[in-house]
Amino acid sequence: MLSQEKISRRKYVKYAGAAVAIGAVAAAGYGISQYKPPAPTTPTPTTPTPTPTPKPTAPSELKIGTVYPMTGSMALLGLEQYRGTELACDLINERGGIPGVGTKIKLVAGDAKSEASVAATEAERLITLEKVNILIGTYSSGLAYTASEVAEKYKKIYWEVGATADNIVDRGYKYIFRPQVIASANQGALPPKFTEEVICPKLGKKPGEVNYAICCENTLWGRTVMAWGSKEAVARGFNLVATETYSYKATDLSAVVTKHKAASPDILHVAQYISDGILFWRQARELDFNVKMMIGTGAAHGLPDFYEALKADSNYIMNFDPAPPGFFNPAGLTPEAKELLDVYLKRWQAKYNRLPLTHSNMGFMHTWWLLTDVLPRCWKKYGSFDPDSIRLTALETDIPDGTSTIIYGCKFAPPEHPWAGQNLRAHMVGMQWKDGKLPVVWPQKFAITDFVFPLPTWKERK
């Protein structure tokens, strides 16, 4: 037995090795079955560092087109207004360009040649060939009407600094902005308002006891003044005894004067350009047509040429217009506005050797708002001077009264307003000719002399 049970050394080693191998496998199998791998982990995402969007580089130059009557029958005031715009641009460029941006202004001047059709073609040329996004103009309502149609077609900004007719802004256009006054509420409505509040007490009469007449040239501007002046006079209870229109190119207005003389008005409310304004008043003298007050509404009655042609015969005629620089009390202005007014007057007088007319002030101050308020805000918010960015910025304009050389501030009517784009803060003041000067007499806050009433008769003037 013992011999059978005896195992050779070689077999032992063989069997032992096998057992160890099996045990190792079993152990290995046990270990695998018991092993629990670590829960998978989601790697923490890393946010890449954003590449800063470079701020747009402001252009070194911005071209702005102008559409003024530089030649023709309207050139006298067209040039005056253009020069106001030009001075505003010169001052901005001398100060380093658009504030906070540094872009210089390059004016590209068109010439409307005092013709509505030419104003339209000049606007198109400036937009399509000169590639301007902004047009400034126009002095005349008839010129502004056609030129702004072109700007709207091309979706370019039309910045009207001088024309006043209502239907420039009542067409629902998106791209027209007018910091200037509107005719209906000013040249139409203010003379009847002034007559009721100031003249009627001096006469010791109620409106129903006062005869009121209106006489206007028959362009778009004159017709607007006629329509709204008549409406306001009737609404306030005046006896509207005569309404006459005529061509400003007329060489004889004696028939118009005769009709008004027959109506015997106490107050004569007029809208006249320079040649017809002078002619009308000369023929009023020749025909001994007397009124207690004649109230002009800009154009002729705001010009030194009116006085130069008529001399003392122009004394005490009134004019309603935006404030003329140098002829109103600046006490109601902010210190900054007083400083700007002083700079403007000194620069103008140094260049032209006279005080600027109110039409220059319209061109200057209304352009100044565009360059120093609207365009800086536009670039800061949108980084662009494209028309839509300018339009959105202009709609947010909010400039208080008393902060300008023209007294009033600026707040544009929103798109849904009947006068979309109209400056709702713009208003006129009353002035009166006295020995070649046209000082403000109303409202009292800005007056520098007293209102004289009534007009002397022609016999009393001799």
Topology:
Elements: H1 2-5, H2 9-34, E1 61-68, H3 75-94, E2 104-111, H4 116-128, E3 134-137, H5 141-153, E4 157-160, E5 176-177, H6 184-188, H7 190-203, E6 211-217, H8 220-235, E7 239-246, H9 254-263, E8 267-271, H10 274-286, E9 293-296, H11 304-310, E10 318-321, H12 335-352, H13 358-382, H14 387-394, E11 429-432, E12 440-442, H15 458-461
Parallel strand pairs: 1-2, 1-3, 3-4, 4-5, 6-7, 6-8, 8-9, 9-10
Antiparallel strand pairs: 10-11, 11-12
Helix pairs in contact: 3-13, 4-5, 10-11, 13-14
The CATH superfamily of the largest domain bears the name Response regulator
Strands of the biggest beta sheet: in what spatial order?
7-6-8-9-10-11-12
Radius of gyration: 39 Å
Low-confidence stretches: 1-38
Briefly note the CATH topology name of the largest domain: Rossmann fold
Explained architecture:
With 462 residues, this protein is an alpha/beta fold. It contains 15 helices and twelve strands. Helix 10 links the parallel strand 8 and strand 9. Helix 3 crosses helix 13, helix 4 runs parallel beside helix 5 and helix 10 packs parallel to helix 11. The radius of gyration is 39 Å and the shape is globular.
Tag the structure with descriptive keywords:
462 residues, alpha/beta, Rossmann fold, 2 domains, seven-stranded mixed beta sheet, five-stranded parallel beta sheet, 12 strands, 42% helix, disordered N terminus
